[in-house]
Design brief:
Layout: E1 19-23, H1 32-44, E2 49-54, H2 56-65, H3 67-72, E3 73-77, H4 88-91, H5 98-107, E4 113-115, H6 120-130
Parallel strand pairs: 1-2, 1-4, 2-3
Helix pairs in contact: 5-6
């Protein structure tokens, strides 16, 4: 598929819906934790729309288990993903990876933001090359302890 074949173009939606391109194959526990997280996001943000990019054969059964996530997602198939230990310069060569296609969706205007829990080095490098000018806000999770 090329950029013009990406499904789910909705950034100019008059309803004010916010569209995200989500790397469905990125991160530890993906795609299960990604789809479970999308179900929570869909419940909290009713106008959310998601272009979920990844291995459709693995994503569709998960979406069937999470109907709220399925209601907001359009799946775009690719069977290429970036391993967590791949160097960012090597990841640049994976033009059909779920992370790269998510970036392409934003670059082409089909989504307004990208979410990936995958390879941090690649996620920080790619926007600087394809989404100029842009702001990159790495979201690194941490745990707050409740101390008396």
């Amino acid at each position: 598929m090329n950029k013009t074949e990406i499904p789910g173009s909705f950034p100019s939606d008059p309803s004010g819906a916010f569209s995200l391109a989500v790397d469905g194959m990125g991160g530890d526990g993906a795609p299960e934790v990604v789809v479970a997280g999308l179900a929570i996001a869909a419940e909290r943000h009713r106008d959310l729309r998601v272009l979920l990019i990844g291995d459709e054969a693995r994503l569709q059964p998960l979406l069937a288990r999470y109907p709220r996530a399925a209601a907001v997602c359009t799946v775009w198939h690719t069977d290429v993903s970036i391993p967590m230990d791949m160097k960012p310069t090597q990841a640049l060569r994976q033009r059909q990876s779920s992370m790269r296609l998510a970036m392409d969706a934003v670059a082409s205007g089909r989504a307004q933001g990208v979410v990936s829990a995958g390879n941090s080095g690649a996620m920080l490098l790619w926007p600087r090359l394809w989404l100029k000018p842009c702001r990159v806000f790495p979201a690194l999770p941490w745990r707050l302890s409740a101390r008396p």
